[in-house]
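For the sake of clarity, the format in which proteins appear in this thesis is described at this point. The fold follows as a row of integers, each naming the local backbone shape at the matching residue. One such record is shown here in full, so that the layout can be seen directly:
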Amino acid sequence: MMKTKHNEHHLSHRNNWLRAGVLGANDGLISTASLLTGMVAAKPDFHTLLLAGASALVAGAISMAAGEYVSVSSQADTEKADMKMEKRELALHAEEELQELATIYQERGLTPELAQEVAKQLTGHNALDAHMRDEIGISEETFANPLQAAFSSAVAFIVGAAIPMLVILLLPLNMLWTALIVSTLIGLAGLGYLSAKLGGAPARPAMMRVVIWGCVAMGVTTLIGKLVGIAV
């Protein structure tokens, strides 16, 4: 009887870059489009509108990269501190750490004898890896990567912000408000769909979440622009 190869394609390894990328693109699209719709409602000249959009794109991309880098660096520092602590405990209290690992496996359903044997074998293979994964919940695949997160966020922000920027570059002023609203909502729906598919989640809730928040943001800035009635 032939053995069939059984492979499961899990998606959780995408969490770090997917979160940073989706957040960056959504922020770039919503923040830039909302700023521009508010300004269009205040009826500025084209050069003021272009300057505001370009400034929002550059400043937003740098801000997203810096924020992600600092945030993920803090996470990485915590993971390194946990690893250092676990190394010290393994060196000073090897037997206690072995029993701790066996207890974890026993709590997951193994018999005491089997849990002890599994703990011994995994400790013999790579004690630090076993404790980091099963005691702390950290594995090599999930280690925080600050540069990856920062780069993903900055590039994604630029991609998102490019949509409203192209609208103001290609269309006349009297069409901008409607075009910004429509293009932004389409872009947000597309981002929601893409993030859901990449993450293996249902598409409709993801699309609805970003579209609703985009409507709120552009509605508020449009109202402010009409009330102020001047170029910012």
Q: What stands out?
A: Residues 18-231 form one domain. The CA atoms of residues 122 and 231 lie 66 Å apart. The chain has seven helices and no strands. The helical segments are 15-41, 46-92, 94-107, 112-136, 146-170, 176-199, 203-228.
